[in-house]
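Lab meeting minutes (informal)
Scribe: AK
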Amino acid sequence: MTCELCATIGGQLLWQDARCRVVLIEETDYPGYCRVIWQAHVAEMTDLDAADRAHCLRVVLAVESVLRELLAPDKINLASLGNFTPHLHWHVIPRFRDDAHFPQAIWGLRQRDVPRLRYMPENLPEKISRQIGIQLAK
């Protein structure tokens, strides 16, 4: 069986290093929805040594920080599921009180139909990419 996250980038590449990459997911209801994907095929955080776990979480938190700064969401959802794709990756999802599923998970029952463009800043992918680089250079 082929692993989707080994075979493909998994979204629009925003940033990467030798250990992980950050991609933007094309999800019209959720602008800024990113994934942090570990480059090697492992299933769980505990498959990583302490230094790699720390690095992965540092990247996840940098993405969260950047999305909060750029989009001012009401909440950020962080999830590492892997039930369908057993390759370590974190979902970093900006949430708004009036988004399509709030307060449910984005995979839950749709609560309302809403236009998402009002939350989409111009050149969002470039801004996220640049800010992640700045955050991680600190």
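Next up, CB showed the second protein from the same session:
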Amino acid sequence: MKAYITNPESGKFFEDFKPVGDYYDAVRLIRVYKDIRYQTVQGFGGAFTESAGYNWSLLPEEKKKDFIKAYFSEEGLAYNLGRTHINSCDFALGNYAYLKDENEPEENFNIERDEKYIIPLIKSAMKENNINLLASPWSPPAYMKSNGEMNHGGVLKKEFYKKWAEYIRKYILEYRKRGIDIKMITLQNEPAAVQSWDSCIYTAKEEGEFVADYLGPELEKNGLSHIKIYVWDHNKEILYDRAKETMSVPGADKYISGFAFHWYTGDHFETVKATGERFSGKDLLFTEGCVEYSRFADTGEVSKAEMYAHDILGNLNAGTTGIIDWNLLLDAKGGPNHVGNFCAAPVMLTEDAKDFEKRLSYYYIGHFSKYIKAGAVRLLVSRFSDDLESTSFENPDGGLVTVILNRKDYGNAFSLNDGEKTCRFEIPAHCILTVLI
């Protein structure tokens, strides 16, 4: 048995932590049931935005290498998932698209903008670990939309549904030419939000129709049917409603691999669980979450880190198969962002951009990503109260990983039992613990 704790008060990260005995306390018990098994996880990761790539490009060469190891090596967070954007997003240096007007031939399709900052970062990560990459559009090109611009919502014009499906197919193939295989796509980032940045609105029915009649067939006829398509890619509170309506569209079920979601409207773990139960066999993928400075700028680092751990725990226990954080690297202001929508990230540049700093959230995420391996299966965990939050997995090698989070202002003693062994721990206030058996 090994155990590792991160204690913000002492400033210790992934520190060896010893049990205080093997006493089985029936009153303060966390029980893991190895024979009650749930979903298999794909892994953990973060987003390769243009902003992240630009920030990474500013670092000295040795610091660039250190950054890649910090996220993608086994000694670091062991990230094996990633997300990037088709055309620009808010965390880009400005709006851009790969074709600028409807009269341009497909041969003019040009991703050289991505080649400057995004692709170098992705390829460096790929040298450290095998990355399963998800691509999401924030907006089609302006000429395809009802409002004639990439920002402020608008909808994809019906006459461009086919062209937009072909555009996405072209993007996938252009990345493949550069040695990067897109494994997953979402139909649209936040399709119910009119934003001041890159955005586009779809109803649930329109998502189903676009997948069933255009995007799914386009990928299929071009030998790309292995690429998983996820819908929704927005907040959890109406995940179930959107999934139900989209899946009611004839033909949608054939092409939809699962449902993607974000955290910006709260926990709603029950909705995530209900969606997985209603559509068994489909993935549940967490694709974005960050600490927004517009809402949480004044919260401390412990609170920010606990937001991450609490949400990861709840999502995993609700059946989520993969966790993808938002920006991998932001500058000291929380950008760049072309509309000033600044946010925190687990790793941020120093003021002089010559080095980077790991925030506490980096270590809290690591208590999951370092130890729960791709292919791990979630197990049932029963706990004595909500004093402690917990999740547990069996890794492909048979080892058990149990993560325990204490968000309380006081310490907690508990016994962890897996049906065979018992370990007694005393976890201090506001700490996170990972136990390996």
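CB comment: The chain has a mean pLDDT of 97.
No objections, moving on.
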